[in-house]
Every structure is written in C-alpha cells, then in structure tokens.
Write a sequence for this structure.
C-alpha cells in the first residue's frame, strides 16, 4: 500500500511549498503538524514562517513590493524587539497648535485647523520603517463648519457632522475627503432629530461597520444613543433617556455593544 510519506517523496519540494503558501495560518498549523517532514519544511521556508509569525502577533501582510518574505520576517522580529525593549527607530518633532489636542487613529494623527470654528483637518501619517509605512501629510478643507468628527484610519473612514446641518452625518474617505465608496446613500446618514452634541457628554465611536453616537436634544431635554450600520444606512439602536440619566456605551469586539441605560 502506498503511504502518504511515499507520495510526498514523489512531489517536488517547490510544489509542496507553493501549495502551502495558499493556506491561511490555522490551516498551515495543521499542515506542519501532520508529520516531521512537513514541520521541517515549514521551519526552513521563510515565506511559511512569515505567515505564522504574522498570525501569532495579530498582524497583516503589507501590499506587494520588492521586499522578500525573508526580509519581511526579519522586520517582524525587529518589530518584536522594538516593543519588548521600547527602542525607538525614529524620533519626530511635531509642531502642534497650542491648546489643541490631536486625535489619533491607527498610525494617523489628526489636528483641527481652527480659528474658533473648524473648517479644515490636517492629517499626519506617522512613518514606520518596521511596518513599511511612509510618512505623509495632507489636509481636508470643508465649505462648512464642522460640529463633530470621528475617524477610523484602518478603514480610511471619516465621519463629519456640519454645524448648520445636524440631521446628517457625512461619511468620507480619510485619505481624500470624498464620499466613502462603501457608504450608503452617497455617503450620507440621516436622522430625524438634530445631532447636537452636549459639551462634555457627547460620545462618538466607530467599530467595524457600525457608528455609535450619544447626543443631547435641547428641545426635548433628553439624551439619545444611536447606532448605525454606515455601509447600509440602517439604524440598529435608538435609545432615548430623559435628563439627568445619561446613557453610556462601548463596542465590545466589532459587532457587540455594551450599554448602560
């Protein structure tokens, strides 16, 4: 009877590696645990070790480039070393406006360009040699005053509410300021009551496909918690609480919500 090991002996090593590179990390773990031959093959192949190294650290591969898998694997090791020793690969000095706290999402720093009202946002992409992220600075100008904004750089996502139009949330690309191609209704989320924030009590948060906002209605004197799917435009949660009860929430993982009425 022909054994699996004898079949492996007939296959070229290059073909086995090519097949293995098509596997995701969990499948690759099963692949290498099949026998010593395959385990040794994985341990000696940088491209396969790289897949496992990324999965073990919760990282994703970067875009295609001339950097080989072996070099990328070394960068992952350097990344580990930098975190374990807190050794900085680069020092940057940023000129920030006084009394303006920057907003951070991913590797993007956002600064409000303001003279009493906000009409522009300045974005800084923080460079990282280890992650292959180039430095970049750009600016998004609006023809209106910005009342609220919230962002998620990992999805190239920027949500904006205008001061003179509090019934709509504009869904934009962080990189360009244009309507996000995955958003519903041409990049507009509509609500039936104004999204006026309450100073010190307003909260806005993005998690995956969902946008959550807590705002205060000055006419009816209540707080509202709204949760949208920004890709479909559907409102999944609409919670109203009369003053002085202030609802609170946070996203637990990507699609789970914890709320305190």
């Amino acid at each position: 009877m022909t054994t699996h090991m004898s079949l492996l002996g007939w296959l070229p090593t290059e073909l086995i590696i090519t097949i293995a590179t098509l596997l995701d990390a969990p499948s690759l773990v099963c692949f290498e645990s099949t026998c010593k031959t395959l385990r040794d093959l994985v341990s000696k192949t940088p491209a396969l070790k790289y897949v496992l190294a990324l999965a073990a650290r919760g990282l994703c591969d970067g875009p295609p480039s001339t950097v080989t898998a072996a070099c990328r694997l070394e960068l992952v090791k350097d990344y580990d070393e930098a975190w374990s020793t807190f050794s900085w690969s680069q020092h940057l000095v940023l000129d920030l406006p006084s009394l303006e706290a920057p907003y951070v999402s991913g590797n993007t720093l956002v600064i409000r360009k303001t003279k009493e009202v906000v009409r522009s946002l300045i974005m800084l992409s923080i460079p990282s040699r280890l992650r292959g992220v180039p430095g970049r600075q750009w600016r998004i100008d609006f023809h209106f005053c910005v009342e609220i904004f919230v962002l998620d750089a990992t999805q190239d996502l920027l949500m904006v509410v205008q001061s003179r139009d509090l019934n709509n949330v504009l869904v934009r690309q962080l990189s360009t300021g244009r309507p996000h191609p995955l958003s519903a209704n041409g990049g507009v989320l509509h609500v039936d009551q104004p999204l006026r924030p309450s100073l010190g009590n307003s909260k806005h948060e993005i998690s995956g496909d969902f946008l959550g906002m807590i705002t205060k209605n000055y006419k009816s004197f209540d707080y509202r918690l709204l949760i949208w799917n920004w890709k479909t435009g559907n409102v999944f949660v609409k919670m109203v609480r009369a003053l002085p009860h202030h609802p609170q929430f946070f996203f637990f993982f990507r699609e789970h919500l914890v709320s305190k009425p």
